[in-house]
Amino acid sequence: MTMEKIEIIGMVAAVLTTGSFVPQVYKTVIEKSTKDISLTMYTAMFIGVTLWFVYGVLIHSISMMLANGITALLLLIMIGLKLKYK
Amino acid sequence: MTMEKIEIIGMVAAVLTTGSFVPQVYKTVIEKSTKDISLTMYTAMFIGVTLWFVYGVLIHSISMMLANGITALLLLIMIGLKLKYK
Description:
mainly alpha; 86 residues
């Protein structure tokens, strides 16, 4: 498989993993309930994704910076919602 | 920064992002409630992480295969729990 085709798989993967938090944020904003959501999960993931962002900066990968930067923002919104509607 | 130090950041990031699902699975198993959890989020993320796994196979990255393989398994458990306790 060519490097271009492999990178397309990586890009689709990035859009899906980053974008997956959008329906969760939407659901939480509408329903104003976070009882079943683990704050530990979102906190650990936020720190992890921030480190992936730093990794992306260090290896000069624009796609890693972009995907992890947006994910970190969505996770921060979820942490805010969890603390607001706990 | 040396490549070794950068890879350590990547490894800590991988442990945190993959491991973050463990407290969520634990919480859901104990509380048997998934009302506030978005099935769309977990489905999109499962497909995305599976593609990251395929990407890891194609670029021969053991750490990507390992991290995304374990994450896919934890997401599959969450999808099963969501369908069981909806």
